[in-house]
């Protein structure tokens, strides 16, 4: 029997975030009068630099803009990609969803499990990001969206090397055993109170992410996968 | 009796030439790439393309296997470009230095139809010759 010898086996990893289902980053880039919602590979996560992925503006499902005291402010949401959000937000939260995804032998398809002939796995994808520009009760209090990260103290006052306590909440309730990443690298799991400690390791934009996988209620998918990010800037590079 | 003796030969030829498609298993070396997401899970069943050095026409198009692996057999030396991508925006575009394996035989199209028939006839005549040598001499 003849066989192919393996001359070499190269492992190639895609710098793509937390998992196959939730492997991209969602972040807000400050610009004049507001923010741009970017999707792809954040430069803090990818060694190959920023890589933006085009997305349909209708993935944006909700936007919450708060002043420092927690009062709601109007925000103007653009209809082009990348989506621009104009508003003087001390806290800005954006929820997106690219819908249902099903893994098949012809690759991952943007379809429900019930719409494919031979599904290998399926999930409903949600991604969200909260950016804190100014500290106050608006940033300290839960917004109670499907998933969020809430800092226990003012993260804008941190210095390189300081510890930050965070809580991961789903609809205002603590999420236990959620993996929390800093710059794309897992740093710990939440306890039963949803809390975890991380240490900031550089100035500039901070990217903290958490993800959850829950069973999907209907036949359209196996799981609901949600990744949320908390961003804020420290010192130089704000 | 002759029909019975011809059966194994016909099976051999049929295996080599099923539905007009011939094949051969060759010893040699392949470059095997294992593509994974950042969390280590395999980049399985996704689209992939391999390009010879400095060429724009794909040398190979296909999909990764269930383990996220992709294999190709280089026929020239240089930096081979590999693209792998999925509908949900994942992917990579990189080069791999590769060269033909000097110890392997050159690719061939297999035995083909004529070759398969020749093998089948050879087996038939061979078996008939052995039968003639031992049984007819004895008779």
Keywords:
heterodimer; A: 238 residues; mainly beta; 5-stranded antiparallel β-sheet; 51% strand; B: 139 residues; alpha+beta; Immunoglobulin-like; 4-stranded antiparallel β-sheet; two-stranded antiparallel ribbon; 6 strands
Walkthrough of the structure:
The complex is a heterodimer of chains A (238) and B (139). With 238 residues, chain A is mostly beta strands. Chain A is built from one helix and 18 strands. Chain A has one domain (25-234). Chain A has one helix at 137-140; strands at residues 4-14, 25-31, 34-41, 51-52, 60-66, 76-77, 84-86, 91-104, 107-109, 121-132, 148-151, 163-170, 173-174, 179-182, 185-189, 195-199, 204-215, 223-234. In chain A, the strands form three sheets. In chain A, strands 5, 8, 9, 10, 14, 15, 17 and 18 form an eight-stranded mixed β-sheet that branches. In chain A, strands 2, 3, 4, 6 and 7 form a five-stranded antiparallel β-sheet that branches. The longest helix of chain A has 4 residues, at 137-140. Residues 15-22 of chain A have low confidence and may be disordered. Chain B has 139 residues and is an alpha+beta fold. Chain B folds into two domains: 1-22 and 109-139, no CATH class; 29-102, Carboxypeptidase-like, regulatory domain (Immunoglobulin-like), CATH 2.60.40.1120. Chain B contains two helices and six strands. Chain B has helices at 2-16, 112-138; strands at 28-37, 47-51, 58-63, 69-72, 78-85, 91-98. In chain B, the strands form two sheets. Chain B has a four-stranded antiparallel β-sheet with strand order 3-2-5-6, with no helix packed on it. In chain B, helix 1 (2-16) packs antiparallel against helix 2 (112-138). The longest helix of chain B has 27 residues, at 112-138. Chain B is elongated and about 75 Å long. The model of chain B is unreliable at 1-14 and 104-110 (pLDDT under 50). The chains are: A mainly beta (238), B alpha+beta (139). Chain A binds chain B through residues 1-20, 23-24, 40, 53, 98, 101, 103-110, 120, 184, and chain B through 25-41, 43-47, 63, 71, 73, 82, 84, 86-92, 94, 96, 98, 101. Strand 1 of chain A pairs parallel with strand 1 (28-37) of chain B.
């Amino acid at each position: 029997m003849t066989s192919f010898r393996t001359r070499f086996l190269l492992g190639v990893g895609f710098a793509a975030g937390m998992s196959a289902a939730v492997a991209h980053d969602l972040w807000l880039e400050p610009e004049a009068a507001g923010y741009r919602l970017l999707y792809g590979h954040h430069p803090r996560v990818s060694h190959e630099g920023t890589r933006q992925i085009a997305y349909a503006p209708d993935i944006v499902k909700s936007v919450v803009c708060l002043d420092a005291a927690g009062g709601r402010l109007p925000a103007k949401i653009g209809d082009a990609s990348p989506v621009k959000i104009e508003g003087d937000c001390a806290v800005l939260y954006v929820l997106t969803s690219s819908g249902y995804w099903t893994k098949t032998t012809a690759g991952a398809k943007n379809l429900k499990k019930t719409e494919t002939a031979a599904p290998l796995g399926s999930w409903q994808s949600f991604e969200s990001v909260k950016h804190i520009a100014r500290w106050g009760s608006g940033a300290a209090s839960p917004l109670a969206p499907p998933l969020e990260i809430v800092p226990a103290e003012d993260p804008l006052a941190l210095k390189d090397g300081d510890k930050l306590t965070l809580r991961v909440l789903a609809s205002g309730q603590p999420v236990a055993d959620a993996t929390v990443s800093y710059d794309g690298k897992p740093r710990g799991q939440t306890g039963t109170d949803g809390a975890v400690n991380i240490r900031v390791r550089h100035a500039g934009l901070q990217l903290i992410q958490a993800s959850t996988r829950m069973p999907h209620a209907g036949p359209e998918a196996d799981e609901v996968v949600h990744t949320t990010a908390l961003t804020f800037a420290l010192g130089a590079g704000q | 009796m002759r029909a019975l003796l011809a059966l194994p030969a016909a099976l051999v030829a049929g295996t080599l030439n099923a539905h007009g498609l011939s094949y051969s298993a060759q010893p040699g070396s392949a470059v095997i790439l294992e593509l994974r997401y950042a969390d280590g899970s395999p980049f399985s069943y996704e689209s992939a393309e391999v390009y010879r050095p400095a060429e724009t026409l794909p040398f190979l198009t296909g999909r990764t296997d269930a383990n996220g692996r992709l294999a190709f057999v280089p026929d020239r030396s240089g930096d081979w470009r590999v693209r792998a991508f999925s509908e949900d925006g994942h992917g990579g575009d990189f080069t791999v230095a590769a060269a033909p394996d000097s110890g392997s035989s050159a690719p061939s199209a297999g035995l083909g139809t004529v070759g398969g028939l020749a093998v089948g006839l050879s087996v038939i005549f061979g078996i008939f010759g052995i039968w003639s040598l031992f049984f007819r001499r004895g008779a």
